[in-house]
Amino acid sequence: MPAAKKKTVKPKANQVGLSEETMMGLYTNLLKTRLLDERFRKLYRQGRFAGTYFSAVGQEATTVGPTYGLRDEDLIAPSHREIGANVTKGVPLDKIAGQIYARVSSPDKGKSHPCHYGWKPKGVITPSSTLAGQTIIGTGCAMGFQIQKKDNVVLAFFGEGSTSRGGWHEALNYAGIYNLPIVYICQNNLWAESVPATLQAGITDFSDRAKAYGFPGITINGNDVFTVHKTAVKAIDRARKGKGPTLIECKTYRWYGHSEIDPADYRSNKELEEWKSKDPVQFAEKTLMSLNLLTKIKREALVEQINQEIDEAISAVDKDEYAEPEEIYNDVYSEQFPVRRVEW
């Protein structure tokens, strides 16, 4: 009598501790962020927009994971490498592209430097280039939520280099004193432009700095989007219930230079290749495939769908005009600034 065939047990998504819908949602935003980011890098090299471009390839999980599932009323205080937070928060791709291209259709009407994404309808504060500046503004917004007795939260994103700024420490100290509803996300990608983390602080884990301000600090694998999301959800829930802030340090790595004009020749190829082997997108794909939630065919269809969405956004922005010079005075003063145009 032939031996009975062994039953194949189909793995379930709850082994990761998340629903199938959440896992696929996280992956879709992760993939969209990667494809959009790489497209902008290509467009910059083609001379399609001016200035420079700050890529977040390699560290997408640090922005997608915390932002997924936030309310529109919750705020994010981003820096210049949070394209994933904008995508995941639901900012339309043509608004992101408009900002990169500095067109009149951009939320900032072409006034700011590329990668200073922001959009009020989705609660994204437009950042500036000042290191840790968004941390201070985000802390102030969290104070506003507390005063208004709202259960909204703020996520503030920054690199490990920002933790050396005085304003960063003042913001976290204030948040700790008043138990503000904010979660601080430190993206420790080992380099503050060309300065290694070992020359920035005498500690291994930057999350240890939270101890000085009386709230929890946690260090996690920033390339595992599922772990990042679960950790952030707990911190967000804690903040929403009035229990105060949390500092989450995500260990990660940016694949390219500080910006597209930076060759990043201060890093070794060995270090770069080691971190590329920890690609957050591939990690998510392998996890989903092992759970039978993703196939190569499904992935190809998703890539095609996302690329079409990107194509449409870029096509729309290409047709847009640049703002008139006088636009620089708008949205600055409480009343319309009187401008007399000078013809040369």
Structure description:
Helix 1 packs across helix 3 (83-89), helix 2 runs parallel beside helix 3 (83-89) and helix 2 crosses helix 7. The chain has one domain: Rossmann fold. Mean pLDDT is 93; it is low at 6-11. The chain contains ten helices and seven strands. It has a five-stranded parallel beta sheet, with helices on both faces. A two-stranded antiparallel sheet has the order 4-5. It is of the alpha/beta class. The chain is globular, with a radius of gyration of 21 Å.
Briefly note the CATH topology name: Rossmann fold
Number of strands: 7
Please give the count of helices: 10
Low-confidence runs of at least 5 consecutive residues: 6-11
What's the gyration radius in Å? Answer: 21 Å
- The CATH first-level class comes to Alpha Beta
Q: Looking at the structure, what is the overall shape?
A: globular
Average pLDDT works out at: 93
- The CATH architecture would be 3-Layer(aba) Sandwich
Write down the secondary-structure element order.
HHEHHHEHEEEEHEHHH
* Percent in helix: 25-40%
**Domain module tally:** 1
**Amino-to-carboxy terminus distance:** 98 Å
Provide the spatial order of strands within the biggest beta sheet. 1-2-3-7-6
Q: Biggest sheet, in brief?
A: 5 strands, parallel
Question: Structural class, please?
Answer: alpha/beta
Going by CATH, what is the homologous superfamily?
Thiamin diphosphate (ThDP)-binding fold, Pyr/PP domains
How large is the share of residues in beta strands? Answer: 5-15%
